[in-house]
What we know:
Layout: H1 2-27, H2 30-60, H3 66-125, H4 130-144
Amino acid sequence: MKDMIVEAFEQFKQLEQEWNEHLILTFNCPKNIIKCGKSLDLHLDQVLETRKLAESWLKAIDAPTKNDVAMIANQFKRMEQKTDSLDEELFSLLQIEKHYKKVLKQFNHVLKDHTTTLDRGAKFLRPKSELEQLNEELKDLTAST
């Protein structure tokens, strides 16, 4: 199998060598180089003229040209990149929000515990109002009679 690959590669190299020799013999003459240059220039002129004609027809029928399509494609690419960026930013903000909600929940729990503790302590420290004292005396008097 390996020999077949090597043999095919050698045949390809030989064919390449033959083509290179043929091209050098054909185009190594200044007259042929000038002819090829002129034909390429003529072809390029025809291509440019065809492009101008196609563009003018597209404008005449109010159809988008190649440049219009390219501009829209570039705009679409920029918008897609911006959308991806905003999506990543939104995801990170949602992660931060989730973290802060968790922290706030823990803080709320701690505050409830402290409030309960303070309420219990306040009952012992708070002086009784005059009305409460009179109610207690009344209860004592009614209990003793």
